[in-house]
């Protein structure tokens, strides 16, 4: 071991795949130091050479690969790598979620410390070299084979696009984002809601200690046979991890808290966060006359940075899970659980559990007896009360191992036993991540605030300065000379178009955010959105601002400055949505000017996107979320600085989190209305309050309206 301070250590599972194709799982002793992560065959003594090491610096990332089944065990897998050397990585796993999350938080905290040193040293990072003679020692050790193939064995049989990149955070925020407070009134009272939602719920009844809500929003894009969404909200005295592990189980334990569960099995494990499941329902509504129901659905889950868990359901067809004799196949339009932490009471952890379902039970009972659907739906929602009573009657809180699901191939006989290759189901399922949290996993609440050592008083002079800043004269720009291929239409009901989104729908950091976390409406943006382009091509489209006649080139000819955001959507056909924001000139010394002229490290740490889906299905709204996302930490961003423009190429395909959200969104994009706000994050009192660069609303976009751009060769 080196002489550096040990931050955390302990036994963990070593997980991977060797070059010859055989997978392995065994215990190794991991040691995290202030600049190094290493693992050993046994607890190390002085001068013991590690099997493998990874230098930890500000460029490292912790990749959350989710749950994996390996050699009869279910493990939670983490992969740590340096983004500049992605093939040099260490993969570790745990048999319970709590232990994996402790390691994740410890490693991310070390990475955060190095990132802070980057800022303190003027973004010049001094690399660290591990000098213990480990290379020569390793070559002579009995672990030579494991070390030699360490890079290869970490490469799983899944595609690289399935790798999930998580943000580097400093722990959960003080307050919790609660998506149940979705009405505009509640949003105005809760500063955690980053964008206002127009969705409303009606309290239907209180039953078994639960509040049962019914959706009031008119959803014209859903099947007529599908009922409105309903959700149950309750409090369970248990940690989010304990509840999550029960919710994920499909064995006999589930029957102890879910009265609508008969049995279930795994159809296919798509990736660590997505699986196709088969589920038989146990419904008690006249079972003599009504056939039992079963389900085949994709289940996607994520853990948010605030410690909450989201589990989403949506029915999918699978050729290895066809109709079963004696069962009617029901259809889940959307559903799932949201498990959020609450403050402990009397020393016991508490969590709020919300269970939403929107389901069509099919069959004759739905059409002839109106009470059938609601009765069965309430029975399923009562599982929240079952969770509460399950933990209320349990004293032992030993972290259990993650349950392993029985594969459907051994549980339900099928004609096809060969490996199944999903088409549209697989493509959309592998893309289903938070999370979301697109963008809500990258909460701006997790960012360190650079508060000065001596607290700056919030004086009348500062308030006056802020008021004058807001009322500075507006310089009008002639918008008639700018054009893009996606048309602008300010009619609220128009389709396949864009319009300016109201900046007051977004909550930004106020002048006092460093002291009281308060936020305020976004207000008027700093720049004008003058055009939007919607492109497609067989390859990724980089540096689109070089295209002759585009808004960036027109702005440059007129002496204006243009900020271009190129959102690159991967797939068999690559799409790019390009936004052109224009201003007469950048204010010297402003945060925006520092962002434009700064280096990539600074840009990655400040470029923020706030998404929102005012209109769309519940599962899409929860996947996209409304939490701010630091783009440079979530995905790979490439910055091209031109004479009078800066283009930001956002490669959404570089992250499973973002790519997963798009995989879900693209399939229903014509039914969606999406809002996006761009801004530079303000961290210090001198930089606050935050100001919007601009905001846009894209309505009911059509894929066929995209055009192939004519790009000049990039010099």
Question: What do these coordinates show?
Answer:
It is built from 19 helices and 29 strands. The longest helix is centred in the first third of the chain and has 24 residues, at 97-120. The radius of gyration is 26 Å and the shape is globular.
Overall number of strands: 29
Mean pLDDT across the residues is 76
* Helix-and-strand structural type: alpha+beta
Shape: globular
Main sheet: strands, sense, barrel = 10 strands, mixed
**Count of helical segments?**
19
Which runs of at least 5 residues are low in confidence (pLDDT < 50)?
Answer: 125-198, 219-225, 411-473
What is the helix fraction of residues, given as a range?
Answer: 10-25%
From the N-terminal CA to the C-terminal CA, the straight-line distance is 49 Å
DSSP strand content: 25-35%
Gyration radius (Cα, Å) is 26 Å
Précis, in short:
One of its GO terms (molecular function) is lipid binding. With 715 residues, this protein is of the alpha+beta class. Helix content is 21%, strand content 32%.
What is the topological layout?
Layout: E1 6-17, E2 23-33, E3 36-40, E4 52-55, E5 60-70, E6 73-82, E7 85-94, H1 97-120, H2 134-139, H3 144-148, H4 150-153, H5 184-189, E8 201-207, E9 210-215, E10 230-236, H6 240-248, E11 261-271, E12 274-281, E13 293-303, E14 309-315, E15 328-329, E16 331-345, E17 348-360, H7 363-368, H8 370-381, H9 383-392, H10 408-411, H11 424-429, H12 460-470, E18 497-500, E19 507-509, H13 513-516, E20 519-521, E21 528-537, H14 551-557, E22 561-569, E23 574-583, H15 591-597, H16 600-606, E24 607-615, H17 618-624, E25 629-630, H18 631-634, E26 636-641, E27 645-651, H19 656-666, E28 673-680, E29 692-699
Parallel strand pairs: 13-15, 22-27
Antiparallel strand pairs: 1-2, 1-7, 2-3, 3-4, 5-6, 6-7, 8-9, 9-10, 10-17, 11-12, 12-13, 13-14, 14-16, 16-17, 18-29, 19-20, 21-23, 22-23, 24-25, 24-28, 26-27, 28-29
